[in-house]
Write a structure and sequence with these properties.
686 residues; PrsW family intramembrane metalloprotease; mainly alpha; single chain; 4-stranded mixed beta sheet; transmembrane
Length: 686
């Protein structure tokens, strides 16, 4: 069942790659949000409505639930599945940086998670009754139209497979059904994207997809509630046969609109094209060529750069500037410069598994391993029950957890997992606050998705504990006569605890650069990291260190990335240095002590350490060193030069400053800041 839900989302992830800006891990996290956030919210809302309606009208609860299944419940469920998208897009950074493709893919993932919850709640404990089908998959013999769990052959040969379906009597070659919740929510999410991104009267078109999704959902449920209505069944059979094509048509429309916006934005945003694109190559060809230099590292860097640039361009297409757009632009410009500087084979000679491992160690969070190990340990009983025990050959595991010591172990772990989820929720709420103004919208989305997953797990755990405190047996249903296709009517309390434990798998603290940003907040304005550096770390992570190393060592000259690369002509190097020194002298109202910009400056010495050049003497007498991206080639040497400059300036009672051209790696900037102080390190545009 899990494979079916994930595979349907994976299909969209692959097809949407040319215009998608959200990463794969965020889309997979949305599956967990669909199960734990949307599923719990829909269950509570339906519970409140059906109980309230039964009490107000005097009708039996069973009749109210039946009527609600095709009147109110489809609307509740579709709104619950869209709620995470709407709440995330409430933030202007997220709303502006998502394209229609992103809305559609994340909506499909939310729907897939919701459908997975229904399937597991209904059939998660039926491994002992399941009968293998000769063509693959398993049938649960409880009616003439038996529930069917597709096998690997059916899942991987279908478009957007559902976790469960129905097996007609005598059917010899069953196929996986199309996941209705994935389709409905993908369709509705496209409408949300149009509502939030379109202008003028076109916004009104965004209302149609959610209405269509709720209508189709209601018609399907009506046919299920009235099996004798042949007309309704015929209509459902008609559109279910073409249901698989709906996400493909929606995706084609979304990608066409997004490509148009990207092409327009590229033409008006400066500095975001790599050299090969400026020379006339297509974006796909230029980035594919770069990604082939050192597979998989350069390939992954290319994919991350492409997604980051799309986020920037989607935001630009919205019109006026929004908070954080400048930092995102600077990060994209810097990344494009680094790609230009490393777009040749010699730059990647030192890149390999060892170099990447060393970079990973530099970003390692010493607390992360402990959090991961605790979460993994707590999920062991749930994995045994629902992963290993879900196969008929291992069904005895489910029976062991249904009573006796196994049941007590599962409930004990479930309570511990509930408390651990609450602790994780507190940490995530702090991260939410720390990253509230972060420039890159995807970081905000990741934090919010994890918060909603943890919040759903906490609410579900509280409901389970209240039911048990009321005297309900662990094997009794948590909620009776509730829709979600009556799935939760079969949800035993101990199965609920197992599902709660599995939510911890979605709450692992992220590693790499994203983990660094979430662990420490943005630290914007602090001495440790700038907003630009935080965005860079969050997007590239460990590979950002690899990219900085490749771009810093790709040429003998100190030219920035938009200069011709690979030249060792002194004239080229001198002209670049001269332009920089003239610019800094102009900015500081200073002079070039050499008298000839681009030539060696005034020599200063620190006994026992060596010498360095003062490139510009500022208007206030400051000793200023000027440089660019190549300062990151040898950070130790650059640090020594900064120490010498600082010593010489102090001996003469003046300030020591460094001016580095835009595009210089953050590693070089941080070295200079650590030695000279933030106020004495400047980034300039030549």
């Amino acid at each position: 069942m899990v494979a079916a839900a994930v595979y349907g989302v994976a299909q969209l992830l692959v097809l949407s790659a040319p215009t998608r800006s959200v990463r794969m891990s965020t889309s997979l996290l949305a599956i967990a949000v669909g199960a734990y956030g949307c599923g719990v919210a829909a269950a509570l809302l339906e519970l409140a409505y059906t109980r309230g309606a039964a009490e107000a009208t005097g009708e039996s609860l069973t009749e109210v639930v039946k009527t609600a299944s095709y009147t109110v419940d489809p609307v509740i469920e579709e709104l619950a599945k869209l709620a995470p998208l709407l709440l995330a897009a409430w933030n202007v950074r997220v709303r502006r940086q998502w394209g229609l493709t992103d809305y559609l893919v994340l909506g499909a993932a939310l729907g897939a998670g919701f459908g997975l919850l229904e399937a597991v709640a209904r059939y998660g404990l039926d491994a002992g009754r399941a009968i293998p089908h000769p063509a693959g998959g398993w049938a649960v013999p409880d009616s003439l139209r038996a529930p069917y769990i597709p096998g690997a052959e059916q899942v991987f040969s279908a478009w957007f497979p559902a976790p469960q379906g129905a097996l007609e009597l005598g059917e010899r070659a069953p196929a996986a059904a199309t996941s209705p919740h994935l389709v409905y929510t993908a369709l509705a999410a496209l409408g949300v994207g149009v509502l939030l991104r379109a202008k003028g009267w076109r916004r009104l078109l965004g209302v149609l997809p959610p209405v269509a999704a709720a209508t189709l959902h209601a018609l399907t449920n009506y046919a299920a509630a009235h099996p004798m209505d042949r007309d309704a069944a015929s209509r459902v059979d008609t559109f279910e046969g073409a249901l698989w094509a709906v996400p493909l048509v929606c995706l084609a429309l979304a990608m066409a609109a997004d490509l148009r916006q990207l092409w327009r934005a590229k033409a008006c945003v400066p500095g975001v094209l790599v050299h090969a694109e400026r020379a006339g190559r297509s974006g796909l060809g230029a980035l594919a060529s770069y990604g082939a230099w050192c597979v998989p590292w350069s390939t992954l860097i290319t994919l991350r750069f492409a997604r980051l640039r799309r986020s920037l361009l989607y935001g630009v297409s919205g019109g006026s500037a929004y908070p954080g757009a400048e930092w995102l632009h600077r990060t994209v410009v810097r990344s494009a410069a680094q790609i230009d500087a490393s777009d040749r084979e010699p730059a990647w000679r030192g890149a390999g598994i060892r170099a990447v491992a060393q970079a990973a160690r530099s970003m390692r969070d010493r607390h992360r391993r402990g959090y991961v190990l605790v979460s993994l340990a707590l999920t062991i009983p749930a994995l045994l029950l629902l992963a290993v025990g879900s196969f008929p050959s291992a069904a005895d595991l489910q029976r062991r957890f249904a009573s006796g010591a196994g049941l007590h172990v599962l409930i004990g772990f479930g309570i511990a997992g509930w408390l651990w989820t609450g602790f994780q929720l507190v940490r995530l709420l702090r991260a939410w606050r720390a990253t509230f103004a972060f420039p890159h919208g995807e970081v905000l989305v990741i934090v919010r998705f994890r918060v909603w997953t943890a919040l759903g797990g906490c609410l579900a755990g509280a409901l389970l504990l209240l039911r048990m405190m009321d005297g309900a047996a662990p094997e009794s249903p948590v909620i009776r006569n509730l829709h979600l296709l009556d799935a939760l009517n079969n949800l035993a309390a101990y199965l609920g605890f197992a599902l709660l434990l599995l939510s911890l798998l979605a709450l692992f603290p992220p590693g790499g650069g994203l983990g660094f940003v979430l662990a420490g907040g943005t630290r914007a304005g602090a001495a440790l990291i700038t907003q630009e550096g935080a965005v860079y770390a969050a997007v590239y992570g460990t590979l950002g260190v690899v990219l900085m190393a490749a771009s810093g060592g790709s040429t003998e000259s100190d030219a920035p990335a938009n200069e011709p690369q690979g030249s060792t002509d002194p004239a080229t190097s001198d002209s670049v240095g001269a332009a920089r020194e003239r610019k800094v002298a102009e900015l500081t109202d200073g002079t070039v002590p050499s008298g000839a910009p681009g030539k060696p400056g005034m020599k200063v010495t620190k006994p026992g350490a060596g010498t360095t050049d003062v490139d510009v003497i500022g208007g206030d007498g400051s000793y200023i060193a000027v440089g660019g991206p190549a300062k990151a080639r040898n950070l130790a040497k650059f640090g020594e030069k900064c120490h010498i400059l600082k010593y010489a300036a102090e001996q003469n009672g003046v300030r020591a400053q460094v001016y580095l051209e835009e595009g210089t790696p953050e590693s070089a900037l941080n070295v200079a800041r650590r030695i000279l102080g933030n106020e004495n390190v400047h980034v300039f545009v030549r």
